[in-house]
From TrEMBL:
InterPro entries: Homeodomain-like_sf, HTH_AraC, LacI/GalR-like_sensor, Peripla_BP_I, XylR_PBP1. Keywords: DNA-binding, Transcription, Transcription regulation. This is Xylose activator XylR (AraC family). Residues 291-402 form the HTH araC/xylS-type domain. The keyword Transmembrane does not apply.
Length: 421
């Protein structure tokens, strides 16, 4: 007779309102679904992390976000097995002693962003961080990584922290960001320590009329879908290996629950990749009219703008603007508008497929593709079909199927990898 695994009561102490913490929790869930571990999970209903009285919690183990110094302090009094999750540190002594620790590799996160900006042809760099505070230790570690890379390559990168954001200080914060941006030599590549920070800076660029990515190429860290939705210019971002971190943390705790002694164990998880979108696709443009036009197109292409509207914004004739585009980019203004609309449609189709039911009906599918065509500025769903066939040799539905197949392959690979941790 098959023995039923013992049920362990496990507390997950995370702030699920943050993308980093949510993905860690998802990774823990993936581990549980792919093993025989049987856990009864405690997680606050509103996803906030409340630590009061945690030392009296009658459970078997805890996985917690140790980027929060309050969690470190509260769990120092707990006798249960604890696995810490958080950012990596340049100084080994900053890690909690005697606690297994799974870390996102802050140096590799920043290096991946930096390498991407170099490949885009940039030679000047800056970092947009957060005010120094104990709760922002991960941001300061990313600053250190940025400084190390600048020193290694003999460059003078600038770090700007600004102020913490709140409703009363928002206007002042944006004004200060604009003032800082205007002091930077252009073009410049800026690495923001998070997508939330990158989104603020992107908004400041748009308010000040600073072309992104021609003058400022911007990349964040987190690959937060909410940040992408809230920006006119799609935001490039480094994808953290957070789900792998969650799986690793769950595996460590699972071992500890069965008697393994893992004090001092440390696992550094590298980034999973980079999502390159418009905000960092820097092209070296010399003519100011082309830069202005590109700035306008990136913001309004999906609203169905025409070449004449772009020329009016720049303040030149259509024929002059077309000549500038052909000389600088080798393509027409219309081609650039269409290219941006196609990229937007591809993103929306892939995201929509992820959110679909497993077997959507044909009417729902047709309606959703038509809605995406309208959202991306195509005059009709038939025109979007024609563009997809011409540029990608497939229909929008076939493109969705490709993305789904690729996602399933990635999920299978992750599951197989999880069994070998």
């Amino acid at each position: 007779m098959t023995k039923i695994p013992a049920v362990h009561r496990i507390a997950l102490l995370f702030n699920g309102n943050k993308i980093f913490d949510r993905d860690i929790i998802a990774g823990i869930g993936e581990y549980l679904s792919s093993t025989r571990a049987s856990w009864d999970l405690f997680l606050e209903e509103d996803f906030r992390c409340r630590l009061q009285g945690i030392e009296r919690w009658q459970g078997h183990g805890i996985i917690a976000d140790f980027d929060d110094p309050a969690a470190c302090e509260a769990l120092a009094r707990v006798s249960l097995p604890v696995v810490a999750v958080g950012g990596s540190y340049a100084d080994e002594s900053d890690y909690p002693p005697d606690t297994p620790y799974v870390a996102t590799d802050n140096f590799k996160l920043v290096k991946l962003a930096y390498d991407h900006l170099i490949e885009a042809g940039l030679r000047r760099f800056a970092c947009f961080s957060l005010p120094e505070a104990t709760v922002n230790r991960w941001a300061q570690e990313r600053e250190k990584a940025f400084t190390t890379l600048m020193q290694r390559d003999g460059m003078q990168g600038e770090i700007y922290r600004g102020v913490g954001t709140s409703a009363p200080s928002w206007d002042t914060a944006v004004e200060q960001q604009i003032a800082w941006l205007q002091t930077l030599p252009k073009p410049v590549g800026i690495i923001a320590v998070s997508d939330a920070r990158a989104r603020q800076l992107l908004q400041a660029c748009l308010c000040a009329g600073i072309a992104v990515p021609e003058q400022v190429a911007l990349i964040g860290i987190d690959n937060d879908p909410l940040a992408r939705i809230l920006t006119r210019v799609p935001l490039s971002s480094v994808i953290q290996g957070t789900r792998e971190m969650g799986r690793s943390a769950a595996h460590l705790l699972h071992q500890m629950l069965h008697g393994a002694r893992l004090a001092g164990t440390r696992i550094l998880v590298p980034p999973a990749g980079i999502n390159v979108l418009a905000s960092s696709r820097h092209e070296a443009l010399n003519h100011p009219h082309v830069m202005q036009a590109m700035h306008f197109i990136r913001q309004y292409a999906c609203q169905g703008i025409k070449t004449e509207q772009v020329a009016d914004y720049v303040g030149v004739s259509r024929s002059s603007l077309e000549w500038y585009f052909r000389r600088e980019l080798g393509r027409s203004v219309h081609d650039e508008i269409l290219r941006f609309k196609l990229d937007a449609a591809k993103r929306m189709l892939a995201n929509h497929q992820d959110n679909q039911d497993n077997q959507p009906d044909d009417k729902q599918e047709a309606r959703s593709i038509a809605e995406i065509a309208v959202s991306c500025g195509f005059t009709s769903v038939q025109y979007m079909h024609a563009v997809f066939k011409r540029e990608l040799a497939c229909t929008p539905r076939e493109y969705q199927d490709r993305m789904t197949a690729a996602k399933h392959t990635d999920d299978t690979d992750n599951t197989e990898k999880n069994h070998t941790i």
